[in-house]
Amino acid sequence: MAALDAGWADPRRLYTEGRQARRLLDDAREAVASGLGVRPPEVSFLPSGPVALTAGVEGIRYAGRRRGMRTVAGAVEHSAVLVPGRAVAAGSDSPQLLDEVAVDSSGRVLLAAWDVALAEPGTVVAALQSANGEVGTRQPLEAAWEACRARGVPLVVDAQAGLGRDAVPDAYDVLVGDARSWGGPAGVGVLVVPERTRWRRPGATSEAEFGRTDAEPVVPLVLAAAEAWLATAADRDDESINARELVDQVRTAAARVPDTMVVGDPVDRLPHVVTFSCLFVDGEALVHELDRRGFAVASGSACTASTLEPSHVLAAMGVLTHGNVRVTLPLAAAVPGGEAARAAGVRAFCDELPGAVATVRAQLGTDRL
Amino acid sequence: MSSEREADEGVEVVEVDARGLRCPIPVIRLGTALRDRPAGSLVRLLATDPAARSDVAAFCRMRGHELVATTDEAEHTAYLVRT
């Protein structure tokens, strides 16, 4: 609210309120840049994480267009990479222009295949998540970046799922984030383009955000995002340790439910995300049953999506896509009652989960299968 | 459900038609057909749901069944599974 009072004016204007908004925006940028370990002019605020991600990949591809336009990406990347990449490939009649590199059953990209893909002539950009927001598995960023550097292909790292919850990546040529991951508001994407990186925005030149977008940031949102970063920075280590422990509890409880597969790497993962799939269960029915019992969860099952397709992440991992439930722990600071209330909520979830699954199986008549 | 004889193996194949049905129904139909069948039985599942591709394979791993063959036909995919 303080952000709304202070930052409403147009930061490009010279009147007092405009100059004040500019100052606030500069301060916010400095706070985020310092948190990410980069210089303020390397940080641009875009309207969302996915928009920043698409722009990050496009700018590298455009800067390298004389050498080719081929993109290499992990098969479990965000749709903001895969959908535009497929469109470029479809538009050129060359499906090879987007190479979706296979992952193992935990969702980790296969490094040998990654290297082969990078070696293909005309490859000008690679994209990889720091960790997958759906299943939590971290990617081997250091090794992937090393392979990129050996092939002269810049790497865009998508840290939308992990910034503020897990260590800030340092193995990248472009870094992308979303303020929501650290408890900030929706509507703030972060695009980090270090000075050493060749990045160029296609289309008309723009003054906004060092020329990396044509949309001026909404100053109050950016202030709120910077505030959230600073407010959660002090507790980040404890928060991560506690979340990791709570997710372990959920993984253990889910693994005890009959015919249930806990998905994603058990150790090398984000602290706050857990996903599992229950055989012979309708994902939508399970989400509703858990909601009825007071738990808000998501699902990657096709029946909960607007399309016929199940989650491309689960499908690429070759794991069960139906009966899927994803729990994303909020920051303890964002829960009324704090850590104690969050831990109690997780305990209650673990207690109720077997009954919720059994209820849905009974409804479907699959409890004796 | 219909039955046929697999010419070269002499093993009866039970066919389960789950075309047009969405997740998790195809896998439920497959599980139902495999239940109570003697070891070595074969079931062929016909499905159009794209989710069945990952789910049939995952189901077989979880339950210790063998996914013998996955065949793409014009309008559907056939999954041959052994108990």
Give a quick rundown of the structure.
The complex is a heterodimer of chains A (369) and B (83). In chain A, 41% of the residues lie in helices and 13% in strands. Chain A is α/β, with parallel strands linked by helices and 369 residues long.
Beta-strand proportion of chain A: 5-15%
- The rounded distance between the terminal residues' Cα atoms of chain A is 54 Å
The biggest chain-chain interface is: A-B, 25 and 19 residues
Give the H and E element order of chain B: EEHEHEE
Question: Largest beta sheet of chain A: what is the strand line-up?
Answer: 1-7-6-5-4-2-3
Number of domains of chain B: 1
CATH class of the largest domain in chain A: Alpha Beta
Pattern of helices and strands of chain A:
HHEHEHEHEHEEEHHEEHHEH
Mean model confidence by pLDDT of chain B: 89
Alpha-beta content class of chain A: alpha/beta
Which class do the helix and strand fractions of chain B yield? Answer: alpha+beta
The domain tally of chain A reads 2
Can you identify the CATH superfamily of the largest domain in chain A? Answer: Type I PLP-dependent aspartate aminotransferase-like (Major domain)
Here the CATH topology of chain B equals Translation Initiation Factor IF3
Q: Biggest sheet of chain B: strands, sense, closure?
A: 5 strands, mixed
Oligomeric nature of the chains = heterodimer
